[in-house]
Amino acid sequence: MARSAFDNAQFLAAARQLVIERGPAMVTVDSVTQRLKAPKGSFYYRFASRDALLGELWLQSAVAYQEGFMAAIDADDGLGAALHTPAWARAHLDDACLLLLYSREDFVAGDWPSALRKGVREQAERVKDALTRFARLAFGATGSGQMRRAAFVLLEVPLAAVKPHLKRREAPPPLVDELIRSTFQAIAPRADAGRARKSTVA
Amino acid sequence: MARSAFDNAQFLAAARQLVIERGPAMVTVDSVTQRLKAPKGSFYYRFASRDALLGELWLQSAVAYQEGFMAAIDADDGLGAALHTPAWARAHLDDACLLLLYSREDFVAGDWPSALRKGVREQAERVKDALTRFARLAFGATGSGQMRRAAFVLLEVPLAAVKPHLKRREAPPPLVDELIRSTFQAIAPRADAGRARKSTVA
DNA sequence: CTAGGTCTAGACCTGTTAGTCTACATATCA
DNA sequence: TGATATGTAGACTAACAGGTCTAGACCTAG
User: What is the pTM for the complete model shown?
Assistant: First the structure.
């Protein structure tokens, strides 16, 4: 059978590197196989399409990111959830560049491959559930305004704070945590009431 | 001479619509000319390349956006500058979608057409000068940490707050201003000390 | 009224992309 | 040993991209 010279993980890894170096749009089937010195046939033997590759790549990182975020939310540690973004970015710089510098649509534009749709939907639902839980904790309600605040403080602000550094491919400095923390306390002061406090509030 | 059936502005307008509807990547010379029912020759008679079109489009919006931002900065109205983003987005929803939902690289990837390079550089310099001025006002210094804070509070946070609404092509609600204001006061409390105050601080 | 510049018109060229197809190599198992 | 599953190998196709080129329509100037 020609014992596999290439496996899925290698294609994924090559694609990951290309995303980080040049962005998702520059990840073509040719560029991936060339980097691996693999023939196109091998690629299509393992992946149904380019979308299947890029979708899997994105989902992998998204799930990895989510893990720590969900853990913090489950512990009702709102500030921890907000600070998870810079923390995870430091620990997984490559994955962070891939996931946080681009949007899901940059990976798969139209319809997702059916094999991945369920995963993507679940991912989105988990985020929504987390925001709901946090909104109740921090604001005492889960109306659209509270949900909007939750998203702002847990996702949008941390993402915005981290992005400029990821663009330079460098780990977010401590200042980023400070900015996120200040914002968090300004907008959701009640949210870490019951939490262990080790914060160095600015 | 065949008195011009199409002018630059029409191509720009068609391209703008396409950006808003489908994103910059979907703006091809063919899609633009088809929408206008113009022949390709007319397009290339007026624009040197696709990059020239998209570059001009981006720069137009960037300069328009900058106007109000700079006015606020020149008046040492830091909070006004931070709130300029949602205000401008309300007044110019289409331009805001174009400018704030995508990055400069989504319009012109590699080298910019030489005719636009100067404009882009000046644009970037004006932003930097504005941030410097604000950093001095708000933090009393212009080191890298202060500059980082300035960018966070004047650009990154307002952008992050506005984005989810622009994605749905809807005007940012008042809550967005409140989020930006709270963040601003948490991070740059000194900055609007000397300002006329009409803010409804949350 | 005609010469020349301005602009439309669209066929055409070249490169790149995702994806297909057929041929072939090799390890495993009967 | 030889049939088969598993995979490599890469030429090929079709679609579409940006960009070029030549023909000619039309206005204005002389």
Answer: 0.93
